[in-house]
Amino acid sequence: MTQDSNVQYSFGTQAIHAGAPIDPHTGAVIEPISLSTTFAQSQPSVPIGAFEYSRSSNPNRDNFETAVAALEKAKYGLALASGSAVTSLIIQSLPIGSHIVSGGDVYGGTHRYFTQVAHTHGVTASFVGNLANDLKAAIKENTKLVWLETPSNPTLTVTDISKVSQILKDHEASTGNKIILVVDNTFLSPYISNPLSHGADVVAHSVTKYINGHSDVVMGVLATNDDKLHEKFRFLQNAIGSIPSPFDSWLAHRGLKTLHLRVRQAATSAQKIAEYLSQHHSVSRVNYPGLKTHANHDVVVKQHRDSLGGGMISFRINGGAEAAAAFTSSTKLFTLAESLGGIESLVEVPAVMTHGGIPKAERESNGVFDDLVRISVGIEETDDLLRDIEQALEKSAK
Ligand SMILES: *Cc1c(COP(=O)(O)O)cnc(C)c1O
């Protein structure tokens, strides 16, 4: 960034300028896509520039990592092939025999990795519904990591990161055992929340969602202030090879430059949609962190920028699975599809789509009933989105 290093620029300015140097050879204001896999050296082991081989580092990936680090108020960023690659890299960095504690309703793929893959490299996992209350009792002698997702998916429960971080600090003070706290910040994006500022050691993202924001790149990123952790992750990534392509890094960086505008618009619309749904006679419950009636709204006020609730809403529709199916098939602007965080609005039924793999009893104990509908609010005009929901509720609800 060609900025005055004495000035602390605000989020939107950093989103545009961090990791975005003017090309010194051509003056291009947008970085070229660097496809070269290898980089020339002047003498053996003395590279001409900052790069040697594109698996280890690449100009487009570097610039994207610089930008994400700035937005997450982190010293380091590390971009990976997907959000799932971030999860697997972090868990693979733990010694054999480690135990991790995870929040209860984490992303399905994260749950799958913890329960069906992690044990193959000697890591076991326990799940705790409410980390801020029940973490202490779940910690074992070999616990090395806590995985926290806030807001949770799809019921949008918000967890107090600083409370969880304090439990781990107290544990370290009394036992000498350091447990690292990882927060998956995919649902809020760095615009709404910066988990490192609340005590997390590592923040993880599926870039596929808000950071890229245009539903055309699968990618992941993590950020940290810890020198040793960063070194370990970078070493491991180079060894494993789970890297994003230069083109995807370039696209994700382009998407990131409008993150603040997109998230503000999505959150503003989502707030109005959640309020509309809350008073609708066909809706029995609305989960949205921006509502003052949300169970964890006090945490939202201190942990989210401007108390924004984000772009994700879930709600229970009267009429069971049938009404949920009818609603999600009747919307015209909200496309029936999995995923979230893009410019276009999406709608889905978690019980049979994103969370279909979880047994019914376990699913329902987490609030994922057959009549639960999840929406990802895009950046279309608010009034058009409201009208679309209104007409779909009329067609479907009992
Ligand atoms: C999508 C998602 C992931 C996984 O990311 P991919 O890029 O799809 O591999 C992890 N966590 C959350 C919260 C997600 O929404």
From TrEMBL:
Gene3D superfamilies recorded: Aspartate Aminotransferase, domain 1 (3.90.1150.10), Type I PLP-dependent aspartate aminotransferase-like (Major domain) (3.40.640.10)
Pathway connected to this protein: Amino-acid biosynthesis; L-cysteine biosynthesis; L-cysteine from L-homocysteine and L-serine: step 2/2
Cofactors: pyridoxal 5'-phosphate
EC number: 4.4.1.1
UniProt keyword terms in alphabetical order: Amino-acid biosynthesis, Cysteine biosynthesis, Pyridoxal phosphate
Residue ranges crossing the lipid bilayer per the database entry: none
A Pfam family of this chain: Cys_Met_Meta_PP
Protein family according to the UniProt entry: Belongs to the trans-sulfuration enzymes family.
Protein name (record): cystathionine gamma-lyase
Organism in which the protein naturally occurs: [Candida] anglica
